[in-house]
Design a protein that fits this description.
By secondary structure, the chain is an alpha+beta fold. Helix content is about 25%, strand content about 30%. About 5% of the residues have low confidence.
Length: about 600
């Protein structure tokens, strides 16, 4: 086993891997950005190193900086977690070139699956059915429109190098195609550094079912059952469970064997997940993509199989093998995971970065909370909106739903809106209870009007400067120092202000103050990605005027009334606060 592993990630997954390392006697080395100096994942490490500024491109996505930190820490291997560089073949190759072990599949396998078109080719070669789609990337609206005319609408515009629903747009008519191509490309470039897109026939009401695979260096490849991840919004998962409700043993075996064939076709090793769309007949399935990493929802598989997937990854990467075969895999009971995101379900799941007040985890048998947050922690707008995952297990699905409802009632997260109210509704929703939901259910079929806007609050004042722990950096390495007593005015080091979890990091806001119903205000804190109108433009209620991005999500801000745009106090690239004036629309 390795002596030390650098975990090239943040948040709950970094903590999850650190725990696996500690249980195996491995030194866990972390990395962090400037805004994450006081993040819980940093404190969970045996040591940690600064990468750079808050933007992921300057920190968690900076390959050279990650490799340099690994060399300085003297680690044997790098675990990428999920997101960021986890599915970057260039990063995996750079790790190998540095003489380190990448805890994941070979670079060639990542490249084959990271390019969604080559992934479809691998599935074809393995004899696994795929959804009809283009074989080459395109940014030509006319070509995309022709595809829609041939296969019918809706059409999915998908990022070739994307994942997690980012860089994906559903187009319902030829009139929407041009804007969808531009938006998908922009979103994909921001999230993954590549903007190429392809087209795929969009299934109206499928289920999202995925198969967890493990493959060791000795050539053994197995699957560990399936997960149903059909409850989604913006094509991003909200609730995951294992096993999939209503799935027959025959379909489970067929999907599992298909996933193994895909993995073997590409020479895959370590943990991976083959995602499938299951049609409404409950039998016809299509290969969607393969995620060449540990999944967010891996805990539900761990719950029903008893297999520690993070430790399995480390053992496989170290050459120890899995120590099990397909015959050893048994599925017991039912597990459900809900993603606790900093979002407001009552406002179309609008991102809500901010400071957490009280944070109390639920307790009781078979309840697990994976989180990268804590009380008095400020959730930054720079990264994903997920702040925790709540997972439960029970002997059957109804028992798991009941246990999840109880755990959600015990969970306390104050200070900012979260998805907890939605999850309470979901656990008792008749469609979910019957296992009859699909990927489109939340946005097209569910009535969420009973969800009310949540209270926000929490003081921004710092606690008294007695017994405070602040962070200093010695040659880029994080060192915690506890200060007793107040510092003289002006004597606090720069790091002190940066490390306070209670000090908000604001943007420039708006030059105007909202004074009338003519003002269009920002529904959330975020970065202005695009301004699509000019002063003097005549607009109608519902017209898209700006695009705001926060927590890796783009949100179109639309005109709230008919009229003429008489002021635009913001511009692309500017950071605005919730409530800032974005435009003024007066009577024509």
């Amino acid at each position: 086993m390795f002596d030390a592993v650098l975990i090239a990630n943040r948040g709950e997954i970094a903590i999850r891997i650190a725990r696996a390392c500690r249980e195996l006697g491995v030194r866990a080395v972390g990395v962090y950005s400037e805004i994450d100096r006081d993040a819980p994942h940093v404190a969970a490490m045996d040591e940690a190193y600064l990468l750079g500024a808050a933007p992921a491109s300057e920190s968690y996505l900076a390959i050279e900086k990650v490799i340099d930190a690994a060399k300085r820490a003297g680690v044997d291997a790098i675990h990428p977690g999920y997101g960021f560089l986890s599915e970057n073949a260039d990063f995996a190759q750079a790790v190998a070139d540095a003489g380190l072990v990448f805890v994941g599949p070979p670079p060639a396998a990542i490249a084959a699956m990271g390019d969604k078109l080559s992934a479809r080719a691998v599935a074809d070669a393995a004899g696994v059915p795929v959804v009809p789609g283009t074989r080459e990337p395109t940014d030509d609206p006319e070509e995309a429109i022709a595809f829609g005319e041939e296969y019918g609408y809706p059409v999915a515009v998908k990022a070739m190098f994307g994942g997690g629903g980012r860089g994906m747009k559903v187009v319902n008519s030829r009139e929407e195609m041009r804007d969808a191509l531009v938006a998908a490309r922009r979103e994909s470039e921001a999230a993954f550094g590549r903007g190429e897109c392809y087209l795929e026939r969009y299934l109206a009401r499928p289920r999202h079912v995925e198969i967890q695979v493990l493959a060791d260096l000795d050539g053994t490849t197995i699957y560990l059952g399936e997960r149903d991840c059909s409850l989604q919004r913006r094509h991003q998962k909200l609730v995951e469970e294992a096993p999939a409700p209503g799935l027959t043993e025959a379909v489970r075996a067929a999907m599992g064997e298909a996933a193994v064939r895909v993995a073997k076709e590409m020479g895959y090793t370590n943990a991976g997940t083959c995602e499938f769309l299951l049609d409404e007949d409950g039998e016809t399935f299509y290969f969607l993509e393969m995620n060449t990493r540990l999944q967010v929802e891996h805990p539900v598989t761990e719950m029903i199989t008893g297999v520690d997937l993070a430790q399995s990854q480390l053992r496989i990467a170290a050459g120890d093998g899995m120590g099990m075969t397909q015959d050893d895999v048994t599925l017991t009971g039912h597990a459900i995971e809900v993603r606790i995101n900093a979002e407001e379900p009552a406002a179309n799941f609008m991102p809500t970065p901010g400071r957490i007040g009280d944070f109390t985890a639920p307790l009781g048998p078979w309840v697990r909370l994976d989180t990268g947050a804590r009380a008095n922690y400020t959730v930054p707008r720079d990264y994903d909106s997920m702040i925790a995952k709540l997972i439960v297990w029970a002997p059957d699905r109804d028992g798991a739903r009941a246990r999840m409802s109880r755990a959600l009632d015990e969970l306390v997260i104050e200070g900012l809106p979260t998805t907890v109210p939605f999850h309470r509704l979901a656990m008792t929703h008749p469609q979910f209870a019957a296992g009859e939901h699909a990927t489109s259910s939340v946005e097209r079929e569910w009535d969420l009007s009973s969800l009310e806007p949540q209270a926000v609050g929490g003081s921004d004042d710092d606690d008294p400067d007695t017994g405070r722990e602040v962070t200093v950096e010695v040659d880029g390495r994080r060192v915690a120092v506890r200060l007793f007593g107040a510092l003289p005015a002006g004597a606090a080091p720069a790091a002190t202000a940066a490390t306070s979890p209670r000090r908000r990091r604001g943007g420039s806001g708006s030059a105007l103050a909202a004074v009338s119903s003519e003002d269009l205000i920002a529904p959330m804190q975020g970065t202005v990605i695009e301004v699509s109108v000019e002063v003097g433009a005549v607009v109608a209620e519902g017209d898209s005027l700006l695009v705001l991005e926060a927590m890796k999500m783009e949100n179109a801000v639309k005109a709230h009334r008919d009229g003429v745009v008489t002021a635009l106090p913001v511009s692309a690239g500017e950071v605005v606060q919730s409530g800032a004036v974005l435009a003024r629309i007066e009577d024509a």
